[in-house]
Amino acid sequence: MKKSVIQIKFEEKIRKRLDGRSLEVAEFIFSDPEIQALHEYANIVSIKRMGYNDHGPVHMRKAALNSILMFDLLTQAGIKLNLEKEGVGSAEDSKIAVIIAALLHDIGMTVSRDKHEFMSVTLAIPYVENLLEQFYHNDLNKKIILRSLIIECIFGHMATQAIQTLEAGLVLIGDGCDMEQGRSRITTMLSGKPRVGDIHKYSSTGIKKVHISPGNKKPIKIKVDMTESVGFFQIEEVLFPKIASSPVKEFIELEAGVIGKDYKKYL
């Protein structure tokens, strides 16, 4: 199955931020034809069947990249994620869990939008088992721990379930940060009669760019540039609630605004 130019671009961006085992894991996922087919079909169901935004290969790679960027900012600030803090794993183990979860979090969209986070867990388990067997076959404890952590990261990405780990919090926010104009481009072009939920795709057309960078007082700063004020819906109804329910919240600065006007500081 041929990959799109933009999908390849995001894979390259992810590769540049990884090394060692985490890079090997990402490469394994990128080259898996079944996972690629799931990603493609998730988009067909999401966009063509239900009229939602992108939930396919590009979105899952953008969510992964966002999560990795924030992961690196936390570790650069000396913050240990849960596995390392609790003495049951390394920073690399945590990063691998985040990568796997982010790249599988929306495969449940191949079944249903409703409770798709749980569908994603069900569909992801065989692939998670295979990945952990490939890369942790000599470490039973790590396999058990990482499997549970990855499941938490996946089922927690909609902020419908309480999560306790920074790892899951990163996937939650990394997913929420994919709200730029391109994500709703196809659904906007295909739109017909107005329907419930249209505000999500139209509001995302007002988001120009989401920047993830070091903060002034906290490790992570998320700055959202808008072309139209309708983009505030995405911030206040999608992104901010995800940040608010994430264990990563205390480490984040959030501001958003229309380019050329004053920006609103949320955190």
Protein architecture, described:
It is a single chain. With 267 residues, this protein is an alpha+beta fold. The protein has one domain (5-265). 57% of the residues lie in helices and 9% in strands. It has 12 helices and 4 strands. A 4-stranded mixed sheet has the order 1-2-3-4. β2 (220-226), α12 (232-244) and β3 form a beta-alpha-beta unit. Residues 183-191 have low confidence and may be disordered.
Core attributes:
4 strands, 267 residues, globular, single chain, alpha+beta, 12 helices, 57% helix, four-stranded mixed beta sheet
What's the gist of this structure?
By secondary structure, the chain is of the alpha+beta class.
Order of helices and strands: HHHHHHHHHHHEEHEE
- The strand count comes to 4
Helix content: 55-70%
Determine Rg (CA atoms, Å): 18 Å
* Mean pLDDT level: 92
Total domains? 1
Spatial order of the strands forming the largest sheet: 1-2-3-4
Major sheet attributes = 4 strands, mixed
Structural class: alpha+beta
Low-pLDDT residue intervals, each spanning 5 or more residues = 183-191
Strand content: 5-15%
Q: What overall geometry do the principal axes of the alpha carbons give?
A: globular
Work out the helix count. Answer: 12
Distance between the termini: 42 Å
